[in-house]
Amino acid sequence: MSENTTALFEPFKSKNLSLDNRVVMAPMTRTFSPENVPNDLNVEYYRRRAAGGVGLIITEGTCVGHKAANGYPNVPFIYGDEALAGWKKVVDAVHKEGGKIMPQLWHVGSVRRPGIEPDPEVPGYGPSGLVMPGKKRCHEMTESDIADVIAAFAKAAADSKAIGFDGVEIHGAHGYLLDQFFWGGLNERTDKWGGDHVGRTRFAAEIVKAIRAEVGADFPVILRWSQWKQQDYSVKLATSPLEMEQFLEPLTDAGVDIFHCSTRRFWEPEFEGSNLNLAGWTKKLTGKPTITVGSVGLDTAFAEEGQKDFMDAKPASLSNLMDRMEHGEFDLVAVGRALIANPDWANKVKAADDASLAPYSKEMLKELA
Ligand code: FNR
To answer: Where is the NADH:flavin oxidoreductase/NADH oxidase N-terminal domain (predicted)?
Structure first.
């Protein structure tokens, strides 16, 4: 990896956010927070990535204050005095290293199964009670459930701002709650929260507006979205630029500052006839800055084999990424697994110290280092 990576290390400024460079740590659930409270191990994990030169850290998904928000054991929450005090230690440690950090605000929706903390009795919640298309196995959200969840996101954002986070990312991707509203396969509602793209984006748009009302115009709000769903990797929310524009417009109007466009392989063109990837199209259609992601710094041969090998990969060339950046296709680059393997990935890449980059292995997920 000896290409010129200068563009990755240029500062970024957008209205309300200034970053030293374009490297973003992708949100990654690690389940190392017993009692749902960020602890000293979590503090050190994020501090090391800030010290390692990451421009912006997006934390692992952290659950907003709603009884059905969580889907997994040992995930940190972002409500309650203890969890917020834990997050404040993380924020302070990252800032001390000169880094920036935003929490990823999360509600898993119908992915939740009974038996999970904080209340094992609580089932999954979804727009139409569906866990998969045609499989009605969880709670169908009422108007008051919808209002409660919107309020929970707004409160989480207000608390995030109060404890010093540099913005928030809303998790609207991967088949979790916001994405369950976006996707017709799980959203069969015929009221104002379903139907056409305006109806299906309304829930997320109302969350963005409620957050804005709490945090003001200047606090950065990122929305992460994906075409693929964990329930079905082949799903596409938008099959043409026109559909994508219709999908994104209400979200842009609601006040999203930056779109984080989640793909597994950043080099894949989104639509036939153009080389632009998902972040490229999103930027072109919204005029907003975008973050790309997906196998950055990982061996393409491994990554191209798809889901089966998603979890193990070797470092590889960044030339395709740098070409795209230099053409302004996207503004920021999120790095996930390469940053688990190398907390100082950004500093190593900046120094062109290729030889010292460790390959990623899923074994690394067994500890938080
Ligand atoms: C993830 N990913 C993820 N995405 C997200 O939006 N919220 C999350 O909490 C998680 N959790 C998570 C855990 C682990 C262990 C992995 C490997 C991934 C997806 C992640 O943010 C990123 O989009 C992918 O990992 C692709 O980027 P890389 O790893 O190819 O750079």
So the answer is: 8-351
CA distance 241 to 219: 29
| Cα 263 to ligand 1 centre (Å) | 10
Identify whether 176 is a catalytic site residue.
yes
* 106, 112, 116, 118: CA torsion to nearest 10: 40
Q: Strand (E) positions, the chain?
A: 12-14, 17-19, 23-25, 56-63, 101-106, 125-126, 130-132, 135-136, 139-140, 168-171, 221-226, 258-262, 290-293, 332-335
Domains of the chain: 6-366 (3.20.20.70)
pLDDT digits (tens, 9 = 90+) for 315-353: 677 989 999 999 999 999 999 999 999 999 999 999 998
Please identify which residue in the block is written with the tokens 């240029």. 10
Q: How do residues 253-286 score in pLDDT, each as one tens digit?
A: 999 999 999 999 999 999 999 999 999 999 999 9
Burial annotation 313-350 (CB, 10 A radius, 16+ → b, else e): bbbbebeebbebbeeebbbbbbbbbbbbbbbbbbbbbb
Catalytic-labelled residue, pool 45, 79, 176, 360: 176
For residue 335, which atom of ligand 1 is closest to its CA? 31
Question: 71 near 159, Cβ under 8 Å?
Answer: no
| CA 206/CA 217 separation, integer angstroms | 15
| Secondary structure of residue 135 in the 3-state scheme | strand
Q: Which of 7, 134, 122 lies closest to 63 in space, CA to CA?
A: 122
Alpha carbon distance 283, 238 (integer Å)? 15
The number of beta carbons lying within 10 Å of the beta carbon of residue 210 is 21
Q: Are 214 and 158 in contact (CB under 8 A)?
A: yes
* Cα 293 to ligand 1 centroid, rounded to whole Å: 9
The residues lining ligand 1, judged by C-beta closer than 6 Å to any ligand atom, are: 26-29, 60-61, 104, 171, 173-174, 224, 262, 293-296, 298, 335-338, 365
- The total of other beta-carbon atoms located within 10 Å of residue 119's CB is 10
Indicate if ipTM > 0.95.
Answer: yes
- In the chain, the N- to C-terminal Cα span, in Å, equals 25
